[in-house]
Design a protein that fits this description.
Length: 169
């Protein structure tokens, strides 16, 4: 069932969260009844709906995050440059799941850990890699995955069986 979030603030992080949580569309309250009807009709056809004003906010968010990524990782050309060796195997495992956009609770259930333990691992990852937040950590891991030498969890043949949650949003 499609979900339309109405009265969306012009906040790219919040809009992205709505979409990652399954919303099919977002609409600011200042859009009129015609726009609401258009959104509902579009979503009824299983198509997402984002009016140009919301698209602009998301585009600006994307550009900002991309610039932060380039600033943070622009000089990284090999796995050795990444600093992943500073992480424990468990932290690398948690980092991979963060990159799959899983919540702390989902990670804790998959790894049979307390949520607080997962939060501690995430904090440790951010500190060791000098990253500002989970989004940067996820981008960092995706960048790391583009190099030929996989992380320990990715090397394991049982990895996909152990984590069957390739969540599509």
């Amino acid at each position: 069932m499609p979900v339309l979030v109405v009265d969306v603030p012009k906040n790219g992080d919040l809009i992205a969260e709505y979409l990652m949580d399954g919303a099919s569309g977002c609409l600011a309250v200042e859009h009129g009844l015609d726009e609401l009807i258009n959104a509902l009709e579009t979503m009824q056809e299983d198509c997402p709906y984002l009016p140009p004003s919301v698209q602009a906010v998301l585009l600006q968010q994307f550009v900002t995050v991309r610039r932060q990524f380039i600033d943070a990782f622009g000089g990284i050309h090999s796995r050795d440059d990444l600093g992943l060796d500073e992480l424990t195997d468990r932290e690398r495992e948690v980092l991979e799941l963060v990159a799959q956009e899983l919540t702390n609770r989902q990670i804790s259930e998959l790894l049979f850990l307390e949520v607080g333990t997962v939060k501690n691992h995430v904090h440790s990852i951010l500190t060791k890699l000098e990253l500002p937040d989970r989004t940067a950590a996820a981008e960092y891991q995706r960048h790391a995955a583009s190099f030929s030498s996989p992380t320990p969890a990715a090397r394991s043949n049982s990895h996909r069986q152990m984590y069957p949650v390739a969540m599509s949003r």
